[in-house]
Amino acid sequence: ETGVTQTPRHLVMGMTNKKSLKCEQHLGHNAMYWYKQSAKKPLELMFVYNFKEQTENNSVPSRFSPECPNSSHLFLHLHTLQPEDSALYLCASSQDPAGTAKNIQYFGAGTRLSVL
Amino acid sequence: AQSVAQPEDQVNVAEGNPLTVKCTYSVSGNPYLFWYVQYPNRGLQFLLKYITGDNLVKGSYGFEAEFNKSQTSFHLKKPSALVSDSALYFCAVRDIINTGNQFYFGTGTSLTVIP
Prior knowledge:
The structure holds two protein chains of two kinds.
Chain A: E1 4-7, E2 10-13, E3 18-25, E4 31-37, E5 44-50, E6 53-57, E7 64-70, E8 73-79, E9 87-94, E10 106-107, E11 111-115
Parallel strand pairs in A: 2-11
Antiparallel strand pairs in A: 1-3, 3-8, 4-5, 4-9, 5-6, 7-8, 9-10, 9-11
Chain B: E1 3-5, E2 10-14, E3 19-21, E4 24-26, E5 31-38, E6 44-50, E7 56-58, E8 64-68, E9 73-78, E10 87-95, E11 104-105, E12 109-114
Parallel strand pairs in B: 2-12
Antiparallel strand pairs in B: 1-4, 3-9, 5-6, 5-10, 7-8, 8-9, 10-11, 10-12
């Protein structure tokens, strides 16, 4: 195991539902990430948090709302999603000293989301 | 703009033969380069990285990659493929000029090792 746990592993939701994805890391890292993985496309970075502060938001629709209550936990709140939002959502964490970009990311197994 | 290209969606190789998975990159400064592997129903796992120094980098499971600055490439290689190497491989780059936490990933290459 990588030390990054995502729940649930699978989620089916209707377009009017509200659900949340959870990510927890046990590695003592200071940065956490949400990615969207769709077939035949590069991993899309959605959000980055560094020491609980959001540092990146790559033009993600407002129907995705991240929350980072502390450096170990990251949530992705979902509401009024569209069928094209169906994908594998991956969480990752890394330990990046300020001013560097050297360290690797550790990924969770992902949540397979299907929007009906 | 920073980007990564993996020109092959699919690579097939016979067990025991050498394998190569290609990656080229484009960054504004000097790159940090990474390879990750993804097995079915799993997240990405780190294989190896190039930061500086020797252009030939050795990583997990017998994989290695060669950084070629003139060709802006970072191809993944293994001398003798195993069936268990069959997986999805992603190349990624970070731009050291960009002090944010931004990784750029390729579209992935599906490797199938044929027994």
